[in-house]
Every structure is written in structure tokens, then in C-alpha cells.
Amino acid sequence: MTTYPPHILIADDDVVGRQIARHMLEHAGYQVDVVDDGRAALEALHQGSYVVLLLDIKLPDIDGFAVAATVAKGLPPGRQPWLVATSALVREGDEPRYQADGFDTCLGKPLRRATLIACVEAGIAQRAHLL
Length: 131
Prior knowledge:
By secondary structure, the chain is an alpha/beta fold.
């Protein structure tokens, strides 16, 4: 089953951050859904097919680490999206720590358009079977 444009989910409790990320991704041609908490992210993942999940670490109900762990346990490997941790606390060299916690990569906030698009494209290449 081919899904085009690639479907991306953003889970972030910051309204402005969600709007900016959504705008950047939609302008680049992606289909984007947004949610504002971890439970909604898990529900969306079970109801739809996403290639990439941009997941804020500090969500109000279930933090990003718990969502990532639930995705790893609850979705078969062939249905797991590219998991991107997003946080203002991400620093250069943090990627191995996030990967150890189940993420594929991480992005620091504020998100930069070129970095965001490059990350999403890498995720799409890695999860092409989800398209």
C-alpha cells in the first residue's frame, strides 16, 4: 500500500511549536496530523499509518520516552514510524542517549526548516515500507 504524500504525526503540547512544524512540513509537501499529548499520539498511531513521528519529550500526560517505549512494545517492527525526539534540551552529541531510549534520532528546538526536512527525509528513506 502506497501512501503519498508521506504521513507525519507531530505530538507537541506547545501550540506555536506545532503550528510552525506543521507549516514547514506541509509547505514541503507532507501530510501532517498534530496532537497535543502522549495518549493522543498513541491513539493516532493505532488508528493511522505514519512514516515519521515528531515526539516532544515533555508532554503533559505521558512523556515522550514512555510513548517511545509503548510504540516499541505495542506496534510490530514493520509498523513503527521513524521516532524523532524533539526538545529544547537536545544538545550536540545527545543522539546516542535518545537512541538508547528507543528513538531513531533527535532534534533540538526551536526546529530549523532545513534540519527538520533532512531528518524527515532520512526517516522516510528508512521507513519506505510504510508508504
